[in-house]
């Protein structure tokens, strides 16, 4: 009954008696301990609900337990967010002043600093406030690095007056990001789109004075997509940012994606579907152990779980009992389950696992309803997932295509047979028409996914194309002389090979510094409030390298702490993980020796 109510009445469900809802926080092992210790008090304050408990079954999982009659009471908790920002290493020279600025500005969220292999600022709280604090933190970093930030245009100067990079709070329900996507907000009516990618196939139909907008409405289950927005918000922000698209969610939960580049738009649609189709419903007759990244709804008769395929498989293997799972997938997957002779792979899976599978075909996807013993349902889910098509897309210069394909396709047939994959080379018009970001696509079932990278490496090594994305922080991107990049949410994918960006502290004379700067890739960095001079470059220099060691905390007893991760082991002592300890700003301000700065 609870499944039917959740699926068809969405978040408007109200029960006659309170039900128990449990969810793991969306931070996993990345949330510092000093923030975890304050969560219960924080949640009671924002929800005004005293019937809230937090549990920590292990150091890397925090479970929130709520008693309520209204499913909609979940919204306030699902509206919380956790973000991590890299603090520029060169700011070690003003760290005490920096932490004081952060303490003064970031008052509405929980804040911690992690010092390990790098230095991170952690922000946790109501999503709207966290996003504002994220932008405020960036502005503080910009101030110390003397980076020009245009408040009116909400943009960061990266090279010269004509080249700016926009720092956006969010690409989800934020009209600021629409300006990045389409430049003119009046062109887009969020209720009645002027152009629709589903009906406007002719990309040449736009006039010179009109800017074409591609839109896509997703008919998603509200509970599942709220799960996606909660646990995969950072991944979704990266997808939207990378593809320069905007996701609008109305009050009645109509979900519309928009963008103005067909290739990027189609890639964004596919990636959002990939996240959504990995989440499943599960009805159980037993209560599972606490685990991360699940929603659990419990009455005196029903246990209902929402989670990723892998998490549900993990839960179903805990106990043998009756279970029902609902899995959504795209229509392409339905075709994959049929071979050339018409013999269904799905029938073969049913025969092996002895479960009951009902298939429901909708306009844009297929739903599988699987019922049986929990361990057999888990096996069925695993086998279905192994058949899911997966792919990798990348760019190879067209002049190399003919050589790689070979006469009559001889070379490419050899590649495909060797790795059991399908490969397609595309010219530029075909790539644009099909909506791929690269001009080489390799496909194979997930069970053979390990061969995707092997196949890609073999092709790349046989061509002259060696470029791979180099992921750097937004701050590091400032003043880099390279225009071949794509933006993520908090990072930049820079296509300049796998070079590592380094900072060096210089004590050399002005003449020697000028000599270093003759290399156009070397950049001078000055920090507000200090006379120290730093050189940012891609190569090693005969200078002191700036590292996380410069952020070492000097404790009163003289112990040096430079690793903010505590090693953990599971009950069998096999898998080692780490808990992030983290430190609040008050502690850091007290512990740092200001005189040494």
UniProtKB/TrEMBL annotation:
Keyword set, alphabetical order: RNA-binding
Annotated Pfam families: KH_1
K Homology domain segment(s): 388-461
The keyword Transmembrane belongs to this UniProt entry's keyword annotation: no
Gene3D superfamilies tied to this protein: K Homology domain, type 1
Gene Ontology molecular function: any one: RNA binding
Coiled-coil regions listed: none
SUPFAM superfamilies reported for this sequence: Eukaryotic type KH-domain (KH-domain type I) (SSF54791)
Full protein name: K Homology domain-containing protein
Species: Anncaliia algerae PRA339
Source species taxonomy: Eukaryota, Fungi, Fungi incertae sedis, Microsporidia, Tubulinosematoidea
